[in-house]
Amino acid sequence: MEDALIDKLTRSLPEGYHTIVGIGDDCAVTQSPKKGELLLLKTDCIVEGIHFEKNAPGKWVGWKALCRAISDVAACGGIPTHALITFAAPSDVSQRRLQSVYLGIERAARQFDIGIIGGESSRSPSSFFLSVTLTGSVLRRHLILRSGAHPGDSLFVTGRLGGSLRRQHHLKFTPRLMEARWLATHIPIHAMMDLSDGLGSDLPRMAKASRTGFEIQPTLLPRTPGCSVEQAISDGEDYELLFAIPPKKEAFLIQQWPFPRLKLTKIGYMTAHPKRSTPLARGYDHFK
Amino acid sequence: MEDALIDKLTRSLPEGYHTIVGIGDDCAVTQSPKKGELLLLKTDCIVEGIHFEKNAPGKWVGWKALCRAISDVAACGGIPTHALITFAAPSDVSQRRLQSVYLGIERAARQFDIGIIGGESSRSPSSFFLSVTLTGSVLRRHLILRSGAHPGDSLFVTGRLGGSLRRQHHLKFTPRLMEARWLATHIPIHAMMDLSDGLGSDLPRMAKASRTGFEIQPTLLPRTPGCSVEQAISDGEDYELLFAIPPKKEAFLIQQWPFPRLKLTKIGYMTAHPKRSTPLARGYDHFK
């Protein structure tokens, strides 16, 4: 539903000049300051009552807002550089809470070496709304899109899936920037994205963008302890990486993977049959 | 209040590398794709019930969202290039209304030759939020900041001030892109900004950023017919240009101004005394 609506809304919009990747991928891509490099642009927002509860600690709200965008830049193989922060806050949000949110933003900015260079603020009649714009850079040869998977590619995910909301992981996750950078520079990744809406929504998006199908064994998915297969597929907000590589690179990837504390699981493969993919429960849908 | 709070929130944030202008001006400025050019970044948001009424036509809502950001890029002397659109909509917002909003965005994008290259959408518990990220480019020698005014500079505004909300001008205004481009390329402008919160808020901001004072004759301000001096100063959402030039360029500006249908008014001058400026009623304050 969301994807179809967005398609409809954005179908006739002008694309502009020097646009390398427009609407539909994790980031938009245009020309960049340095030769051989590209500029990544990502915008994202989180809303009180949808992405975080009213009583969620401010510093985790700020952390999440920036880290969601970092996760998208990472999934494109890029390095985040600058961010702009926009918020709209109801008049009953205290200065103390805003300071706490900015503390979380600052912590993420310092940890991932991002400059905060602008923003905007407004009053809001009820919900607290936080929007992040993030720029990034990526060498042209390291840019990874969700649309590049080939039939036969092996599918991998990092970490474990499911239960993110229940265990507050969605507020405190670490975006897989280091891991994505290693993948972009060491493995000929065909397609990658971050799992924000759940594998059940995100894997079909990758397959659709790549014009492939997919075949996975749901019971073999790496699950958060205590989570069912359904939860691993549909809970969403995992912020793990999903990527497709040529099968002959599998052994090399598994041998060389330099992050012993982060699980790496082959979950299946891409197929040539878009209409005969493994049926999956849909992941989190903002419009459901 | 808003400015002081934002100062407090953002004071300790890291600035990042290659940042030419960070928090506090109309746009952020970093390195750009082309030599001698700079990249402008602007983020802005509008919120139902604050910046537009629930019954405002969708196409004007979309137009306003993009044009507010265009107005900021214009005020820096730049040319807008790419935009990303993020919205959060309550479930009772119809698809028809969203399409109407996107039609307004598209109209503005086509009129000002901007590519829409990405965005994000979310559900919202109540208010409808629309956030725009806009990139722009400007030659280094054409970049104009709000902080460059000198004591003695002559202050000008375009158009007429006041009454924007009453007559729906705030939804339908044309950002002064053409005029700002002409100014940036023909006149040695010291400082410029767009009037979004009202002269009573925005002029003190320019003076503060430039470490100057100002002296104006409020009764001589160009007013929208039917507006009082107070309304011209405080209503806000004029989206006209305010700029400071060396007094010896005044005659040249007035002679050469190529927009006969757009009024150009000298409203006063900058002074060396930050604490002895003309007292003005504050303009629109999002947090009041």
Structure write-up:
2 copies of one chain form a homodimer. With 288 residues, chain A is an alpha+beta fold. Chain A has 2 domains: 141 residues, PurM-like, N-terminal domain (60s Ribosomal Protein L30, Chain: A, 2-Layer Sandwich), CATH 3.30.1330.10; 123 residues, Alpha-Beta Complex (Phosphoribosyl-aminoimidazole Synthetase, Chain A, domain 2), CATH 3.90.650.10. In chain A, 29% of the residues lie in helices and 26% in strands. In chain A, the strands form 2 sheets. A 6-stranded mixed β-sheet of chain A has the order 1-2-3-6-4-5, with helices on one face. A 5-stranded antiparallel β-sheet of chain A has the order 8-10-7-11-9, with helices on both faces. In chain A, helix 2 runs parallel beside helix 3 and helix 2 runs parallel beside helix 5. The longest helix of chain A has 18 residues. Chain A is globular. Chain A starts with a helix and ends in a 17-residue tail after the last strand. The mean pLDDT of chain A is 93. Chains A and B meet through helix 1, strand 2, strand 3, strand 4 and helix 3 of A and helix 1, strand 2, strand 3, strand 4 and helix 3 of B.
